[in-house]
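[Q] Does anyone have a clean structure-token version of this?
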Amino acid sequence: MAATATRVVKSGKAAARKAPRRTAVSDTHVRLWRTAILVSLFVLLASVSLVLFFSHAIHKELDFITAPATAAGLFTPSPAPQQHLINASREHLQDLRSGLTTTALVAIFSAFVLGYAIINRLRHNVHRLHKRQTRLSSENAVLEQRVKDRTIALEAARAHAEKERQRVETLLQDASHRIGNSLATVSSLLGLQLQRSRNPQVRTALSSARDRIQTIAAAHRRLRLGADMETASAGEFFNAVVRDVQAGLPAASRERIRFRTFFEPWHLAARDVTTLGIILGELLTNAVKHAFPKNKNGVITVAFGKMDEDILQLLVEDSGIGCTGFAENTPSEDQGLGQIVISQLSMQFGGKPRFEKAERRGGTRVIIPLPALNANKISN
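[A] Here you go.
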């Protein structure tokens, strides 16, 4: 490809050097043909003028010879002078005929030369036009072949890039799935240890650790990257997290607790989606565990998007019994590690969780503003 490009550049330079010379020769040739045509045309016009002049003179001589001796027949010259005038007129007439013949021959020759010049010029133009068309067709064929070769090369490169992209996507998905499986294995081991433990504090710690590991494992298993291999659909991922939490409930709890979701179609960076999925899992786990005691029925609402403010927000609201700590807009210290984890992870997005009391149904509303995420890492 590089050698071909070098040859093309060299041929272009050589053609550029030869082009002025060919143009100068062509201009000289055109000027010569124009001069020849003009000269031939001038000679032809002069010859026609002379033919007309000689014809007029001959007619006058003929009129003189054939005229009567006198205008009214009153005077008759002697025969000798009259014959002399007739002979002189005949000689003059003969000279005029010779000039007319010569002029006619010159006119015919000039017309022939002019016609030949015009016809030859037309033939030359037709030949040059045909030659240019042939060269243009040849160059078009060469260019079309080059374009075809380049298109084939680009198609091959695109196919190779697409194949590599699919391979990388497969590897990333496989790696994420393996991480999720490994975390699920760790969660299972913690569950086994939880069953063997009799210490309430140890059981609580093991249960919390297992739940968080399950949330992270589910986040890795559910993550699906977009075509750019850098972003993921937030709504699709959050729906998967909600389904996982709902599927992890006992059958009786699944009948008592209903989930409602409202997700706007935003695409976020894969790392941010995973972090928000962990936060959402923590919020849902806390709501399921603490909001509906004594087999209380209720609804958990999950929303993501631009709601009251012009920034993205994550909202989780339940219709349960509520919690304390709303006066300071922070969770109370006795509510566990989950809300501390939520607060720490939310700081990555420049926001601070707001814990409020739900206005309509009671219960708890948690709003997490995400100003940094809205400013830098979102494409709608």
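[Q] Thanks! Anything notable?
[A] The chain has two domains: 2-67+84-162, 223-379.
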